[in-house]
């Protein structure tokens, strides 16, 4: 099962075009983070209070879907040379999950999965998304995640991505490999 965390605010934008192509014929679920309620992380690491149990939002439901998958896709447009805020809200909350060792063996479970990061930007993203790629690499390093790959596509208006032939070709190959993986299960 592939769980895709979709971080664009455009449900029919370039990121969605890529995702549809990537996931065709695979076993997947897409979580549209823009339409989910994820509260901001509360840093209680250095207080006497235990893990914050007071959030009333969609985070734990989403986390369950992430934990149940073997492959995670992070899909985000480049927003101000970074990931979208909706995806960042989700990742920030890992700081709380890391302290909830009774509920999940969070770090260990996350480290066993395969990750695909898809970034789409309009302004020379192959170069200007490099800081974001670096950020994801540090996140993966911290989480002991070693199985990951990046795809960076270029587009401004919806469907522009179809003109980025190299990226669309990469996506097709990845889709083929994901389907092959499915057959080998
Ligand atoms: C708030 C916002 C910030 C953006 N910042 C950048 C940026 O820093 N670099 C860039 O190349 N494109 C930037 N863009 C353009 C989007 O990355 C681009 O239009 C992309 O195709 C959007 O993906 P989508 O079609 O999946 O929504 C920005 C767009 C928005 C709405």
Structure in words:
The mean pLDDT is 94. The chain has a single domain (2-45, 53-184), classed as Rossmann fold (3-Layer(aba) Sandwich), CATH 3.40.50.360. Strand 1 (2-6), helix 1 (14-23) and strand 2 form a beta-alpha-beta unit. The protein contains eight helices and five strands. It has a five-stranded parallel beta sheet with strand order 2-1-3-4-5, with helices on both faces. With 185 residues, the protein is α/β, with parallel strands linked by helices. Helix 1 packs parallel to helix 8. It has helices at 14-23, 59-67, 85-92, 94-97, 106-111, 125-128, 130-142, 165-184; strands at 2-6, 28-32, 71-77, 114-121, 148-154. It is globular and about 55 Å long. Flavin mononucleotide binds next to helix 1, strand 4 and helix 6. Flavin mononucleotide binds at residues 8, 10, 13-15, 77-81, 120-123, 125, 128, 155-156, 158.
Give the secondary structure arrangement, pairings included:
Layout: E1 2-6, H1 14-23, E2 28-32, H2 59-67, E3 71-77, H3 85-92, H4 94-97, H5 106-111, E4 114-121, H6 125-128, H7 130-142, E5 148-154, H8 165-184
Helix pairs in contact: 1-8
The biggest sheet amounts to: 5 strands, parallel
Structural class: alpha/beta
CATH H-tier superfamily? Flavodoxin domain
Integer count of domains = 1
Report how far the terminal alpha carbons are from each other: 11 Å
Bound molecules: flavin mononucleotide
Known CATH architecture: 3-Layer(aba) Sandwich
Kindly state the number of beta strands: 5
Poorly predicted parts:
none
Shape: globular
Question: What oligomeric arrangement do these chains adopt?
Answer: single chain
- The proportion of strand residues reads 15-25%
Helical proportion, percent range: 40-55%
CATH fold-level assignment: Rossmann fold
Strand order of the largest sheet: 2-1-3-4-5
CATH class: Alpha Beta
């Amino acid at each position: 099962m592939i769980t895709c965390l979709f971080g664009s605010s455009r449900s029919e934008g370039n990121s969605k075009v890529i995702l549809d192509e990537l996931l065709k014929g695979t076993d997947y679920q897409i979580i549209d983070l823009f339409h989910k309620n994820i509260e901001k992380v509360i840093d209680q690491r250095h207080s006497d209070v235990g893990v914050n149990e007071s959030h009333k939002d969609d985070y734990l439901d989403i986390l369950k879907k992430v934990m149940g998958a073997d492959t995670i896709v992070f899909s985000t447009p480049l927003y101000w040379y970074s990931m979208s805020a909706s995806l960042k809200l989700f990742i920030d909350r890992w700081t709380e999950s890391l302290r909830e060792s009774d509920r999940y063996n969070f770090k260990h479970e996350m480290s066993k999965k395969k990750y695909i990061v898809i970034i789409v930007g309009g302004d020379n993203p192959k170069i200007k998304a490099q800081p974001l790629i670096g950020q994801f690499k540090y996140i993966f390093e911290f989480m002991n995640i070693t199985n990951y790959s990046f795809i960076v596509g270029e587009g401004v208006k919806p469907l522009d991505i179809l003109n980025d032939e190299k990226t669309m070709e990469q996506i097709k190959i990845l889709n083929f490999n994901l389907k092959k993986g499915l057959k080998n299960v």
